[in-house]
Each structure stands twice: as structure tokens, then as C-alpha cells.
Specification:
- This protein has two helices and ten strands.
- The chain is mainly beta.
- It starts with a strand and ends with a strand.
- Bound molecules: myristic acid.
- Myristic acid binds next to strand 3, strand 7 and strand 8.
């Protein structure tokens, strides 16, 4: 189950990923220490997500397979949806500013939540621990 609160523990290739996303260096430096914490609450095919970081606190509701809008901390707007594939969440989101697609997955590996990101051939991961 994904339910619970997850605190980012470490990231892989995340600064490079942000660079490919077009985020400037100052923001990348800040974002690499964003203390991201997400709380996931699944009820059937509905999710409630609370995202807390040094940048902001936002709450998001989505239903699996249903498109919704989401803005990154820098204001970049995305539109897309999550699907459950086995016990993995797979998200496909399109940037509104350039039409390019960002895909992401969430899976539980051992006692960690691993979120992968892919955009324009660049891959990154952020690994969360229960907290
Ligand atoms: C959620 O389930 O947390 C809300 C929807 C998340 C959409 C996809 C998030 C992609 C984040 C990419 C971060 C890269 C920053 C350059």
C-alpha cells in the first residue's frame, strides 16, 4: 500500500533531470534540498495527496485514469493522469507550455517508495522513507 507519509531520503540524477526540464541553476540548487514530504491516501481508485516542501504545501485529488491538472513548484503546468499497473503507479503528464511528455512511476521497494521520472530521454529517481 502507498498509504502514509513519505519523506525524501535521496535522489538520483535529479539535478540533471531538472536541468533538462529547463529549471535554472539557482532553483535547482534549492530544489535539491526541498525536504519533500508526500502523504498518500488511497480509497478505491481515488487518491488524496498532500505535498509539503520548502517551496509550498499543496493538496491534490485524483482518480486513477482521469486527467487532472498539476503545477510544478516553478509554475510549469502539467495535465495528465495516473494508472495502476500491478502494484505500480504509472503517470503520464503533458507540459502545457511545450506539449512534451513527462512520465513517472511510484512503486514500493522494500520499505521505500521509489518515484522515477522520465522526460526527453532523461531519467531520475527520488527515494522516500516512511516518516
Ligand atoms: C501527485 O500524485 O503527487 C500529483 C501529480 C504528480 C504529477 C507528476 C509529477 C512530476 C514531478 C516532476 C518533478 C520534476 C521537477 C523538474
Amino acid at each position: 500500500t502507498f498509504n502514509g507519509t513519505w519523506k525524501v531520503d535521496r535522489s538520483e540524477n535529479y539535478e540533471k533531470f531538472m536541468e533538462v526540464m529547463g529549471i535554472n541553476m539557482v532553483k535547482r540548487k534549492l530544489a535539491s534540498h526541498d525536504n519533500l514530504k508526500i502523504t498518500l491516501e488511497q480509497t478505491g481508485d481515488k487518491f488524496h495527496v498532500k505535498e509539503v516542501s520548502t517551496f509550498r504545501t499543496v493538496e491534490i485529488d485524483f482518480t486513477l485514469g482521469v486527467n487532472f491538472e498539476y503545477s510544478l513548484a516553478d509554475g510549469t503546468e502539467l495535465s495528465g493522469s495516473w494508472l495502476m499497473e500491478g502494484d505500480m503507479l504509472k503517470g503520464t503528464f503533458t507540459r502545457k507550455d511545450n506539449g512534451k511528455v513527462l512520465t513517472t512511476t511510484r512503486k514500493i521497494i522494500g520499505d521505500e517508495l521509489v518515484q522515477s521520472y522520465s522526460y526527453e530521454g532523461c531519467e531520475a529517481k527520488r527515494i522516500f522513507k516512511r516518516g
